[in-house]
Amino acid sequence: MTDKIREIPNLERDAIKGAFAEFARMLPELAANAATIARARRDLFNAYVAAGFTEPQALELCRSIP
Hints:
By secondary structure, the chain is mostly helical. The protein contains two helices and no strands. The longest helix has 49 residues, at 2-50.
């Protein structure tokens, strides 16, 4: 019975290690997507300002978009 109890933490530890390995594998793609999203949001902000909104108004409009 004690052997079964010891197996559970090992499985959890392996699952956590696997999750971190997957995250590390995906990190470059996540970073590239973040940069793309940041550029798109900046372009949207600039478009609002060009359309006549003040910078605080443009920022508030950008904040309202999830």
